[in-house]
Amino acid sequence: MNRFHTRLAAVMIGLVGLATAAAGIWVAVSFERSHYEALRDNLVREIGLIEDALSREPADGADPHARFTELARRYRAITGARVTFISGDGTVLGDSDHDPLAMDNHLNRPEVAEALREGVGRDIRRSDTTHHNLMYVAVKRDTGEDPAFIRLALGVSEIERGIRRLWLGLIAGLFLLLLVAAAASWRIARGMTKPLEAVIRTARRIRNLDYGARVDVDARGEIGELGRAVNAMAESLQRQMQRIREKESQLESVLENMTSGIVRVDRSGTVVLLNRAAGTLLGLSADELIGRHYTEARRQYELTQRIGEMLERRERARDEFTLYHPEERQIEIHFVPIEDRDDGGLLLVLQDVTAIRRLERMRSEFVANVSHELKTPIAAVKGFAETLLAGAGDDPEARRAFLAIIHHESDRLNRLVSDLLELSKIESGRVPLQFSPVELGPFIAKTVGLLAKEAERKNIRIETEVDEALYVEADEDRLSQIVVNVLSNAIHYTPEGGLVRIRVEPVAPRGDVDDRDKRADRIGAARTGPDAGPRGPFPEGADERAEYDAIRIRISDNGIGIPKQDLPRIFERFYRVDKARSRSSGGTGLGLSIVKHLVELHRGSISVESEVGVGTTFTIELPVLQESGDEAGRFLQ
Hints:
Blueprint: H1 2-56, H2 64-79, E1 82-86, E2 92-95, H3 110-118, E3 120-126, E4 133-141, E5 148-155, H4 157-207, H5 221-257, E6 261-265, E7 271-274, H6 276-282, H7 286-289, H8 301-313, E8 317-323, E9 329-338, E10 345-352, H9 354-389, H10 396-427, E11 436-439, H11 440-450, H12 452-457, E12 461-466, E13 471-474, H13 476-492, E14 499-507, H14 513-528, H15 532-535, E15 550-557, H16 579-584, H17 591-601, E16 605-611, E17 615-623, H18 629-636
Parallel strand pairs: 12-14
Antiparallel strand pairs: 1-2, 1-5, 3-4, 4-5, 6-7, 6-10, 8-9, 9-10, 11-13, 14-15, 15-17, 16-17
Helix pairs in contact: 1-4, 4-5, 9-10, 10-17, 11-13, 13-17
């Protein structure tokens, strides 16, 4: 911008200088011309006077050279100018300053030649005799026969000195004027370009994406209007960019937090978009694939082949692929062609349907298992009933045996239906839990007593170890159902003379002293606060300074154990490790599934460890305090 400022000032100075120089030259030339014209006119008038005097002079017949020389010298004394008389053929008749006989023919002199043509002639030249510039003025004189000429010559030294003084004054004035003009032009240019510089700086900042830049211009007129227009443009751009950034941020947030994977491939096959979910499903990060060709995802060969086909076909499609990296997944992919004049390409929407397909498979297995479990007792009841109707009822012993089998199978059918209904209610969260403080010592003793006779029949010893004054907030009936189911399984799968142990212990928290104080305050509030009403207060035996926030129940046996490959599935419905033995014991295959859901309703966890031929250990962990029954129900949902 400084160069523009300098150029503008230089242009202004140049224009002022040219105008001043032109005016000075014109004045000087006009002055010189006017002086020379005035001098010529004076000489012409003087020649006229000489001519008039000559007309009254009598011709005495003397030597014309002498006569005209005398006249020339006399008129020189009067006019102060050199006087020359020239005949019509150019011969000098007389001269006031030189001998006419020694002078050349003057017919070709410029002033004489011009006078011959126009009557009056003028010329300024350097005199060979005086070595000064002289103005020669010649006037043609009509004498009747041949014309003659009278010429006056006067030095122009004074005029030249005047003109020189004029030029010196003009040059000095021009120089001073140029200095003043330069200062004024520089200041004016600075005043004109300063707001323009502010506009340019602001425009550069806007070009560099600084949309908060504004022009601070107080000028009026076009420059002020330009500054205000730039400010309005910057404000509009700032608003638009803010909206664009907000929408871009929203879109980026939506894409990054979508559970579905999104991949966009342009016409050339370059991956231009890949969100976090797609990277997780494909086992690739955005940095690894964005900006590269889709074929570089070499670990997903089948998918890349399909992408190439869809880029050529340009039509919608849906496929399912089994991906084995980074883990085995069932992926549903929608291929959507993008019709765009500038880019186009292909959009891939990836959805992980592994869990859905697993649930579908489990649902199918559940229906098959229910059908199978119901079919066995129904077929037994129907078969023995048909046998009795066919005549076997006449034999009292056979009739009693068949009716006992029918009763047993109907009991089994009833247990199966009851367990299914119970499991359905638990899974749907429609089981209301009545939480209250449960002292675990007496509770475990009572629960073990329910299964004592069954353990005695198999000569199985049950050992219990429960810390004193150990409490937990739970639904006592459902907690009893949990322990009875696990303990019953331990008894069933432990051979005669075996051992079953029950160990109940507190779980120390990972928090610091402040956390324990807060937990003790909660126990105190449960004992005495408003929440103690419907659930019942914690008894005085509960330690308010208890340093545990959960209890752990371990039920272990030295039975047949569970194979390692079956451990992940033992909590599934109708899953049995030893199917023949399970049915012979009257089990429905739903007990552990019910246990798992009840533990989750108590916001706890259950795990199992087992070794074939050594035994099995179930570990149940439950929090000491529950938020509320409703919240526990919502936890399961």
